[in-house]
Amino acid sequence: MRIGIVCPYSFDMPGGVQAHVRDLAEALISLDHHVSVLAPADDEDDLPPYVVAAGRAVPVPYNGSVARLSFGPLSFARVRRWLREGKFDVLHLHEPLAPSISLLACLAARGPVVATFHTATTRSRALAAAEGVLQPVLEKISGRIAVSALARRVQVEHLAGGAVEIPNGVSVARFAHASPLPGWPGDGGAIGFLGRFTEPRKGFGILLDAFTQLVASRPGLRLLVAGPGDADEALSKVAPEVRERIVLLGLVSDADKARMLRSVDVYVAPNTGGESFGIILTEAMAAGTAIAASDLDAFRRVLDDGRAGALFPNGDASALASTLAGLLDDPARRAELAGLAREAVAEFDWPVIAARVLEVYSAVVATTPAAVTAEDEPRTDWLPKALRDRLR
Amino acid sequence: MVGAGVAIVLVSMYITWLAGRIDRLHARVASAQSALDAQLVRRAAIAAQLAEAREEQIGARAAAVRSAAKAALHADPDQREAAENDLTRALDRLPLDADDPMVIEMAVASRRLGVARQVHNDAVRDTLGLRRRRLPRAFRLGHRHPLPTYFDIAEFTVATAPTGPDAPERTRPAVGEATPGPG
């Protein structure tokens, strides 16, 4: 198939949607499909070969953070050209409601269109108000995908639509074959944490409590932490003898994230809430690391109904401490959990996820038997010639 | 006078645009209906084959699967949903090995049916949403086409017990969980 994918956010900045689009494109390419990704881009040199730049990206506050978007007549013209020249069998838009090129592509395209909704946006009143305006745009979408039950629920509740739920994929091979960081896990045992450790719902405080309890009786135990945040602030209340056992890596690249997950005996996900899907769990599962996670529904589901990891009661630092103690003392149990996790994560591997996405493509192509093309150009002969040429 | 003329032109442009949208939506519904029909037929055919080939393992339930598949294939349009629901129930949790290629084929057919149903119901929802608005109703836009209806059947998850006395029972679906409800 010839597949056209649109990413609304610039690839310059790391982000979940960008990573998803990149991984999906590469998985589809490895399944022998022809893929072109349209994305806002400033610097064309750093882009993978399958990406087409849609023009400058502008930082815009959107959905609680700053996104780099492309929106405007020049972007629109580039989108139309890409649609006309691509001769795609299907068009796959990501986050079509963000004010960026996905929305423009939805307006400009004719033919089979699939859209993936990534975020569970909480600004529901704004969305409901925009519904009337957005409806002609949404009508063009024949098939909808949501990456989590939460994103899907937003679809159903606010946008009067349904969606097929296909979770974010994980590149199992990349995580499974990474090599541990030198000196890790070490003889005394190692525990890992990845995420925004200053955000309360990530549960880092609970892990610190549990770690402090364990350190008293385990002289070699260390804690490896990766993620963005102010280290001094997070560790200000920690005793010095505990502080020296904690190693902070800061923000890590994807490659180092894989290595970090392979460097610990137990990965801990002490999140207290706000997780619609345990993506970080799937990465730890792919890495073959034993997992201790709070008993959130999302985590339980991903861990094969709790079988592929050690669940502890949400928010209970002492329970976490005893769970960790049990795992650190029992290598056989860790190996067993890791094995079950590897089996459970197979269904989230990108080739499997990409196959499910292809099923949605096929269903939509069956519904709209024509190739993707740009809508007829609106009449422009009433515009001054200079402007007309720029829009072409 | 000129103002009224301009207003009439604008309103008629708007109505024309709405009519075009409704026509496109009905075309989308029609294609979605035939695609859904194709997936329903495919599922019933595979179910019949499965009941035939794995009769030994399924035992008494094979007859139920066979008759449900036959009923689904021959049902009148107004009986279709009920017949397909019966087939879903007959297929639910059959005692088969999750690695059996026929079971995998059944699961894939079921999942594709789920997607086709989602696509169909989305098309119906969009069409009904537009046709029920005031202006389209007032101008009877699209009245040539009957109002489309949703197709609602329970989806099933392929939960099968692996063979062998020591194998732990898998209660989660082996191949992707279908979305519940009308969506």
Brief sketch in words of this structure:
With 392 residues, chain A is α/β, with parallel strands linked by helices. In chain A, 42% of the residues lie in helices and 18% in strands. In chain A, strand 9 (143-146), helix 5 (149-158) and strand 10 form a beta-alpha-beta unit.
Describe what you observe in this structure.
Chain A has 392 residues and is of the alpha/beta class. Chain A folds into two domains: 2-169 and 350-391, Rossmann fold (3-Layer(aba) Sandwich); 172-346, Rossmann fold (3-Layer(aba) Sandwich), CATH 3.40.50.2000. Chain A is built from 16 helices and 17 strands. Chain A has a seven-stranded parallel β-sheet with strand order 3-2-1-6-8-9-10, sandwiched between helices. In chain A, strands 13-12-11-14-15-16 form a six-stranded parallel β-sheet, sandwiched between helices. The mean pLDDT of chain A is 85. By secondary structure, chain B is mainly α. Chain B has a single domain (2-138), classed as de novo design (two linked rop proteins) (Up-down Bundle). Chain B is 64% helix and 0% strand. Chain B has helices at 2-53, 55-58, 61-74, 80-91, 101-131, 134-138. The A-B interface holds A 135-136, 138-139, 141-144, 152, 156, 160-165, 304-305, 347, 356, 359-360, 362-364, 366-369 and B 21, 24-25, 28, 31-32, 35, 38, 111-112, 114-116, 118-119, 121-123, 125-126, 129-130, 171-172, 175-177, 179, 182-183.
